[in-house]
């Protein structure tokens, strides 16, 4: 194949891969194999191409805590909404955050009530706004994993270098490897293989996964996002499992280098320091988030506005943590389809349209109408 | 030229000479006809001899007002005409109500009026009555346009969202997602440049040809906000049928696909303003497709799926790699994402 | 959470430039990379080029697949 994008979506290649997967999965005897991805973009890609509906019955794809929207605590949304109520503040955010429920409001609701909240494709827009409107306070909602954090770091550095006193960032960046350790070291969690996030890996490289393999003997495959990528990664993991092996296979070699992007990591470390962080549904994971360094506190919205980002009130009956860890499936949560639904989401797993519970909900409805076994998980 | 100011003033909405000036200088020359000319409170119209009339109303609030391929004026006429055409009607008359913000540039108003006029002529409709209001600066975002439209239904066919039948072919008249991407490419905060132009166009002519061709049409819908996904879900729900789409058959321009890839959007949910979805029995589908393809607004028409008796009330899709996914009803506006 | 596309660099001046992905052009920030030239491919995420992209690795991918399939016997 030539490596054009359409090649990675070629049904002839995916058909062959599926044949190989069926064969490999068959060799793992008839027990269920659970493979977890930890990237919202993987969740979306798997849903978009209907990959679950094509895999053999004993292969389960779990959707872990890889969506920054999903794992952002309600308290962060509350803090953002509070800031937006200041008439002198313009809040700039990625679209993903707009509908995430806070304790009792959301950015969409705040906007409807008159707050100046703008959706941007890039943090560069916040810098532009800060330059154009020196008398307005611009706050950028800095969420994301290691894929986005270096760009945010650069933006913070720019704010300081260019004396953009009216620009600040509310950080909720999180780190993937600590979350992987939390999952892997949990006794309740049964993950037979990890589909590692390709674009996070473009930044952090592959050595963090070598550590996961070393400590927990969980097979890893660093995966791209096209159907051929995902299916090849699934195949690589099945082969490792069938052979009783555990290593890091790099499927996404066209974007991932072992050493990652050193320049990006260096920029990240200049603006941010590691800190404990609260993950919606998972609780606090030590040293799993990024805090803006004191040297840049003039651009840290928490310092500038004196806001604390509280944990927020998660519904005590919410079992998102267990769903995200793969311990229970969505219907086993007492709130599923009763209090919690896509239109009225309670927890993270229902917030994202492709989150574990939202996805299950869609397919559950479908199978009720069709009257046959679910394709959805 | 009697308008002195280059910006709209509150006085222009005041009902006095300033408003008369505005109407005479801008609106009347743009779309004068025998029904508008008397400039009375109501237009007295003729030619409605049929048993069935179609009547619609709409409001237009698009931002930005001028976008690649069109503007709010063209959008207002096309949207109204298309609503009537989707009922199987021949659109005849439109009313036009504008709410203008104080300070709005007169030149832009002129351009919008001209666009309305040109589109009305293209659609063979007349703007017969109107209203003008001016509100204080800040009370409106430039200009809002509200319309109502009347058309006559000359066909015996019952064309409605609840008429889909098991086995019907689902046909779309051309490329999906052009309008939404064109408009988004001009919004602040979206740093991408695209050659994509809005498809905004009145479809009455295409629909007329379809109706004249003795094809059993069950449903006509124009997939505007919420994209084809919203329109198809509405049909599936109204008719209590299932709809199965085939991803490989859905026409989307590469430039629209790439913009969607970058922003994390799904073309099925992106707005269109010059497309229609038609459902008809499978044995009429080839004829319908051939007819549509001969018309400039249907040149890229394609059969994208079929109605089924499974998955009632839902739309599912066979993906490019043979998997199955649900195409659910959108909740609200699709927003660009990083995840 | 990593929506990124492999775009071709059209022009680059210092840290700024333009890339193209299948007909759509994006203003890109290259502060995270060194030694980027027009004609190179980069991953674009939120308007930033986050890593170089090597389309020729397609061959490696096919090799990887072949090895895995052969190992199945």
How would you describe this structure to a colleague?
The complex is a heterotrimer of chains A (377), B (339) and C (73). Chain A is of the alpha/beta class. Chain A has 16 helices and eleven strands. Chain A has two domains: 1-314, HypD, alpha/beta domain 2 (Rossmann fold, 3-Layer(aba) Sandwich); 320-369, no CATH class. In chain A, the strands form three sheets. Chain A has a five-stranded parallel sheet. A four-stranded parallel sheet of chain A has the order 4-3-5-6, with helices on both faces. Mean pLDDT of chain A is 90; it is low at 371-377. Chain B has helices spanning 17-31, 72-85, 106-123, 178-184, 204-212, 227-239, 254-263, 282-294, and strands at residues 52-60, 66-67, 70-71, 89-101, 126-135, 143-153, 169-172, 192-193, 219-221, 242-246, 277-280, 302-308, 315-318, 324-326. The longest helix of chain B has 18 residues, at 106-123. Chain C has a single domain, classed as SH3 type barrels. In chain C, 18% of the residues lie in helices and 44% in strands. In chain C, strands 3-2-1-4-5 form a five-stranded antiparallel sheet, with no helix packed on it. Chain C is elongated. Chain C starts with a strand and ends with a helix. Classes of the chains: A alpha/beta (377), B alpha+beta (339), C alpha+beta (73). Chain A binds chain C through residues 1-5, 7, 17, 20, 23-24, 27, 39-41, 66-69, 94, 121-124, 144-145, 147-148, 150-151, 154, 197-200, 202-203, 225, 228, 232, 235-236, 239, 243, 249, 251, 253-257, 261, 263-264, 267, and chain C through 1-4, 6, 22, 27, 29, 31-34, 43, 45-48, 50-51, 53-62, 64-65, 68-69, 71-72. β8 (192-193) of chain B pairs antiparallel with β3 (24-29) of chain C.
């Amino acid at each position: 194949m030539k490596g054009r994008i359409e090649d990675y979506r070629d049904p002839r290649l995916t058909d062959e891969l599926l044949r190989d997967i069926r064969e490999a999965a068959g060799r793992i005897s008839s027990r269920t194999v659970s493979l977890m991805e930890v990237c919202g973009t993987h969740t979306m890609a798997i849903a978009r191409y209907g990959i679950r509906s094509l895999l053999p019955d004993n292969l389960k794809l779990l959707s872990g805590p890889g969506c920054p929207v999903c794992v952002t605590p309600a308290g962060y949304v509350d803090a953002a909404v509070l800031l937006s109520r200041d008439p002198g503040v313009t809040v700039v955010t990625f679209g993903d955050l707009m509908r995430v429920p806070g304790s009792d409001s959301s950015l969409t609701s705040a906007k409807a009530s008159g707050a100046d909240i703008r959706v941007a494709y890039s943090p560069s827009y916040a810098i532009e706004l800060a330059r154009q409107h020196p008398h307005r306070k611009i706050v950028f909602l800095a969420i994301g994993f290691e894929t986005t954090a270096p760009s945010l770091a650069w933006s913070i550095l720019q704010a300081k270098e260019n004396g953009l006193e009216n620009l600040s960032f509310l950080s909720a960046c999180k780190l993937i490897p600590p979350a992987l350790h939390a999952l892997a070291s949990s006794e309740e969690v049964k993950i037979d293989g990890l589909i590692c996030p390709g674009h996070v890996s473009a930044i952090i490289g592959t050595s963090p996964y070598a550590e996961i393999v070393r400590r927990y003997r969980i097979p890893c495959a660093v995966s791209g996002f096209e159907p051929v990528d995902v299916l090849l990664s699934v195949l690589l993991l099945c082969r490792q499992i069938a052979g009783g092996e555990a290593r890091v296979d790099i499927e996404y070699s066209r974007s991932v280098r072992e050493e990652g992007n050193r320049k990006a990591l260096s920029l990240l470390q200049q603006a941010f320091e590691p800190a404990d962080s609260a993950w919606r549904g998972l609780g606090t994971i030590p040293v799993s988030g990024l805090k803006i360094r004191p040297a840049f506190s003039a651009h840290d919205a928490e310092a500038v506005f004196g806001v604390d980002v509280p944990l927020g009130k998660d519904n005590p009956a919410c079992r998102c943590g267990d769903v995200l860890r793969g311990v229970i499936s969505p219907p086993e949560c007492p709130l599923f389809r009763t209090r919690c639904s896509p239109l009225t989401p309670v927890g993270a797993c229902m917030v994202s349209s492709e989150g574990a519970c939202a996805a299950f909900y869609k397919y559950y409805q479908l199978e009720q109408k069709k009257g046959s076994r679910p394709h959805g998980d | 030229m009697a308008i002195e100011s280059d910006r709209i003033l509150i006085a222009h909405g005041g009902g006095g000479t300033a408003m008369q000036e505005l109407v005479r200088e801008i609106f009347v020359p743009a779309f004068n006809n025998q029904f508008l000319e008397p400039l009375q409170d109501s237009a007295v119209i003729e030619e409605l001899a049929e048993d069935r009339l179609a009547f619609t109303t709409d409001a237009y609030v698009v931002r930005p007002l001028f976008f690649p391929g069109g503007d709010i004026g063209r959008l207002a006429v096309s949207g109204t005409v298309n609503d009537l055409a989707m009922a199987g009607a021949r659109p005849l008359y439109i009313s036009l109500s504008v709410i203008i913000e104080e300070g709005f540039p007169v030149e832009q108003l002129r351009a919008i009026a001209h666009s309305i006029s040109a589109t009305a002529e293209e659609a063979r409709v007349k703007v017969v009555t109107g209203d003008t209001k001016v509100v204080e600066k800040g009370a409106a975002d430039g200009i809002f346009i509200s319309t109502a439209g009347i058309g006559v239904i000359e066909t015996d066919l019952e064309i409605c969202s609840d008429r889909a039948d098991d086995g019907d072919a689902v046909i779309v008249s051309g490329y999906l997602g052009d309008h939404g991407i064109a408009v988004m490419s001009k919004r602040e905060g979206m740093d991408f440049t695209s050659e994509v132009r809005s498809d905004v166009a009145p479809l009455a002519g295409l629909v007329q040809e379809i109706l004249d061709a003795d094809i059993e049409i069950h449903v006509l819908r124009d997939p505007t906000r919420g994209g084809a996904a919203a329109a198809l879900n509405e049909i599936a729900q109204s008719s209590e049928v299932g709809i199965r789409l085939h991803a490989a058959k859905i026409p989307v321009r590469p430039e629209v696909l790439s913009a969607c890839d970058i922003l994390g959007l799904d073309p099925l949910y992106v707005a269109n303003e010059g497309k229609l979805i038609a459902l008809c029995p499978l044995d009429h589908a080839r004829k319908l497709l051939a007819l549509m393809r001969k018309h400039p607004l249907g040149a890229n028409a394609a059969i994208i799926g079929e109605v089924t008796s499974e998955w009632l009330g839902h739309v599912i899709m066979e993906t490019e790699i043979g998997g199955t996914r649900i195409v659910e009803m959108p909740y609200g506006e699709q927003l660009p994402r990083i995840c | 959470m990593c929506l990124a596309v492999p775009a071709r660099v059209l022009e680059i001046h210092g840290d700024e430039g333009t890339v193209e992905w299948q007909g759509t052009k994006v203003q890109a920030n290259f502060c995270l990379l060194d030694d980027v030239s027009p004609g190179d491919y980069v991953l674009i995420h939120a308007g930033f080029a986050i890593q170089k992209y090597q389309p020729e690795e397609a061959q490696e991918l096919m090799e990887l697949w072949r090895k895995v399939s052969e190992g199945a016997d």
